[in-house]
């Protein structure tokens, strides 16, 4: 058994260089289909969203990039947004396209039967690629909300073929340093069929496109009971895990704070990550959050989220791999399981606080945020904050 006192600093060396990307929309007001509660101090524009994200990074040292969502984060001058981020010590991360809020896309966007609608959806991605050029982003993230509600409504095969053609047009427009990240989701907004419902479909499209097309795994986008760490393992094995959208869920796509509903699942995911060295920056896996803070303080919610991911990774780094190999070879089922559980039950909070202190960061970023008065300051300064884009 490992105890907190026994966590030597070198055991956590795998955290060096590990970063988490935060979503701009987590700082805006969001809600369910029933109600959007506003929070005092909510950012009024993308500049203020980036300022809030920069607070999260300043206090944790973990979150140096911010994803944007277009057109939610539309600005006249992206170069200025890029400079603003740099001035605050962060940079622009992935650019998320939006195919789910335009009337033309009622029956599909990249899969639509009408070539005019498909061309419009492709053109939106070319616009996003221009935003990438202006902001220095290298990840274009595409979540396809297309699907059908009734059997017979459209040809399932026809939609896949149209999708493949649209994706190819987008992929061909990328610059050499760009990646296309393709996100899957098994339901919603449509309920009979989704056109990219699962990792297999996303992977097939990525493989057809080329090496710079990779899969995004959003932890809230699977049927209940799905073994998500198996998918992580398989995508890594195929060299196609491009990114995570981390969040927690109890029911569906709840977008709650990562590690809040099921810290053990997050740990199991991180064990697979560590076992294939995918936590190291050279792996190219972008560890992003995709969350909404509907009732809690948004900046604090983001701080809690990145700390939860860090904690899960720290525990995964503590797995005694030699003991695990030995138990597996001996067919010691429960012995192997115990090795994992020992790591999971280790309290790493003290060791992580020491690590932060050694890096000039607050030992307790949540307490430092509360004590900083930042929430009161932005509440006084900002009036009439915006929604994240949901209605
Ligand atoms: C869709 O449910 C999704 O997970 C996609 O990543 C969207 O871009 C995001 O939510 C918006 O919050
Ligand atoms: Mn997502
Ligand atoms: Mn989602």
TrEMBL record:
The keyword Translocase does not apply. Its EC number is 5.3.1.-, 5.3.1.14. Signal peptide: none annotated. It comes from the Bacteria. Residues 76-256 form the Xylose isomerase-like TIM barrel domain. InterPro entries: L-rhamnose_isomerase (IPR050337), Rhamnose_iso-rel (IPR013457), Xyl_isomerase-like_sf (IPR036237), Xyl_isomerase-like_TIM-brl (IPR013022). One of its GO terms (molecular function) is L-rhamnose isomerase activity. Gene3D superfamilies: Divalent-metal-dependent TIM barrel enzymes. Keywords: Isomerase, Manganese, Metal-binding. Pfam families: AP_endonuc_2. The keyword Transferase does not apply. This is L-rhamnose isomerase/sugar isomerase. It comes from Saccharothrix longispora. The lineage of its organism: Bacteria, Bacillati, Actinomycetota, Actinomycetes, Pseudonocardiales.
